[in-house]
Amino acid sequence: KVVDLLAPYRRGGKIGLFGGAGVGKTVLIMELINNIAKAHGGVSVFGGVGERTREGNDLYMEMKESGVINEQNIAESKVALVYGQMNEPPGARMRVGLTALTMAEYFRDVNEQDVLLFIDNIFRFVQAGSEVSALLGRMPSAVGYQPTLSTEMGSLQERITSTKEGSITSIQAVYVPADDLTDPAPATTFAHLDATTVLSRGLAAKGIYPAVDPLDSTSTMLQPRIVGEEHYETAQRVKQTLQRYKELQDIIAILGLDELSEEDRLTVARARKIERFLSQPFFVAEVFTGSPGKYVGLAETIRGFKLILSGELDGLPEQAFYLVGNIDEATAKAVNLEMEKVKEIILSTNSGQIGVLPNHAPIATAVDIGILRIRLNDQWLTMALMGGFARIGNNEITVLVNDAEKGSDIDPQEAQQTLEIAEANLNKAEGKRQTIEANLALRRARTRVEAINMIS
C-alpha cells in the first residue's frame, strides 16, 4: 500500500532501497519477489554484490522457510540467486552484477516474463571497479574513485529496461558511505534512479511494517498526468497530514495533546490512523507472525486513504487500522475491538485495591506491587505489576508500570523457586537497606505466584 500510494515503481524502472540493519530490507525484498510471482506471473533475480557471505546464506535460508525457494520442486521457485561476496577478488565482484543482469535479460527476452532484479549492494559494484582500476594502474579521479565511474555505472544501469516482450525492474540497495550523499558513488547512482524507498528505524521501532518512511520516499511517477488526478491528490493529502503531525510532535511531547487546537487534534488522530493503515501483513512473514498476508490493489488503497482523510472513519479506534489489508478489514476489526471493550479493572494502590468501572471519576494514583485484573466481556485477564502509575479520565485508563507479566506467561516452577530464594535472602539480610531491598524482592515474588494461583 505504502509503495503503491506514495512512491510507485515504474515497470522497467530503477529503485534505490535505503535502510540500515534490522529495519526489514530483506523481508520487503522477499515480499516483492512473492508478489511479482503470484500477482504478475513474473520472476526475480537476486545479485549479491560484495556483501557478507553470512547475509547471503541468511537470505537463502529465509527464502526457503517462506516458500520463495522450493528445493523439492525447483520449477516452483520464484527467484534465481547469484553471489559474488566480499571474499571474492575484485574482478568477480565487479562482474556479478552484470551476470545477474544477463540472467534477468534471459527471463525477459526468452521466457517473455516481467523480471524484478535486486542488486545488494550497488555501492560494492563501484568499490570493486575502483579496486580493478587501481590494479590496472589508472589515475584515480575524485575521492580516489576510478576515472571510468560514470561509464561503468551506465553500462550496468542502461541495460535495465523494458522491451515489447517483458521488462526488468531493478531494486538496488544503496550504501551511503559516512552518510555523505555527495560522495561520487551514491551521487552517480542517484542520477539513474526513478524512485527511492527509505526504510525508517523509528517506524520499525513502533512495529509498523513495512517500515517505509512515507515522507522521505520519492518517485518520479507521482505526477497527475501519469498516476491520475485522484491518486496524486490522495497521496499529497496523506503526505501533508503526516508532515503536520511530524511538526506537532515536539509540542505534544512537551505540552501534551490537550494544548493543541481542535483542528490539530483531528489532524493528529487522522495521521496516526494513516500511519497504522500504511502497515500491511506480509505473505512471506506469515510463517513467523501467524497472521495471513494481504494483497491490496491500487484502487482499494486509494479508496481507503480517501475515507480516512474525509473524516468518515474518525470514530474508529486507531488500532483497528494496524496490520490490515483494505479499509473494509479495518472497519470489521473496529467492530471486534468495540465488542472487546474493557468492562472493569481492579488494580493495587498504596492504600489498597480499587475497582474502576466505565465513566469513573478522573483520578491519578500510584500503583503498588500487586495484581492487575482486567475484565473483557466475561473473561478476566490477570497480570503481575511491579509498581507504577495510573491515570483515569475521559473513560480511558493509562497504566505506566516498571514491569508487568501476564499470569499465563509466568512459569510456576520458576516463580516458586524465586519466592523461596527471596524468603531466604530476607532471613539473611543485614542492615536497613538490605532488608528493604529483600522485602521488595519478596513482594514481587509473591505477586507472581499469586497471579498464577488466580488463573488456576
From TrEMBL:
What catalytic activity does the UniProt entry give for this protein? Answer: ATP + H2O + 4 H(+)(in) = ADP + phosphate + 5 H(+)(out)
State the Pfam families in the record: ATP-synt_ab, ATP-synt_DE, ATP-synt_DE_N, ATP-synt_VA_C
Domain AAA+ ATPase residues, every copy: 11-203
* One GO MF term attached to the UniProt entry: proton-transporting ATP synthase activity, rotational mechanism
Specify the domain of life of the species encoding this protein.
Eukaryota
Swiss-Prot/TrEMBL GO biological process terms: proton motive force-driven mitochondrial ATP synthesis
Q: What is its EC number?
A: 7.1.2.2
Q: How does it sit in the membrane?
A: Peripheral membrane protein
- Please provide one cellular component term from the Gene Ontology annotations of this protein: mitochondrion
Localized where?
Membrane
InterPro entries for the chain: AAA+_ATPase, ATP-synt_VA_C, ATP_synth_F1_bsu, ATP_synth_F1_dsu/esu, ATP_synth_F1_dsu/esu_N, ATP_synth_F1_esu_C, ATPase_a/bsu_AS, ATPase_alpha/beta_chains
Q: Kindly indicate whether the keyword Zinc belongs to this entry.
A: no
Query: Keywords for this entry?
Result: ATP synthesis, ATP-binding, CF(1), Hydrogen ion transport, Ion transport, Membrane, Nucleotide-binding, Plastid, Thylakoid, Translocase, Transport
Q: Which PANTHER family match?
A: ATP SYNTHASE (PTHR15184), ATP SYNTHASE SUBUNIT BETA, MITOCHONDRIAL (PTHR15184:SF71)
Q: What role is this protein assigned?
A: Mitochondrial membrane ATP synthase (F(1)F(0) ATP synthase or Complex V) produces ATP from ADP in the presence of a proton gradient across the membrane which is generated by electron transport complexes of the respiratory chain. F-type ATPases consist of two structural domains, F(1) - containing the extramembraneous catalytic core, and F(0) - containing the membrane proton channel, linked together by a central stalk and a peripheral stalk. During catalysis, ATP synthesis in the catalytic domain of F(1) is coupled via a rotary mechanism of the central stalk subunits to proton translocation. Produces ATP from ADP in the presence of a proton gradient across the membrane. The catalytic sites are hosted primarily by the beta subunits.
What family is this?
A: Belongs to the ATPase alpha/beta chains family.
* NCBIfam families according to UniProt: ATP_synt_epsi (TIGR01216), atpD (TIGR01039)
This chain belongs to which protein, by name? H(+)-transporting two-sector ATPase
Q: Which gene encodes it?
A: LOC113857032
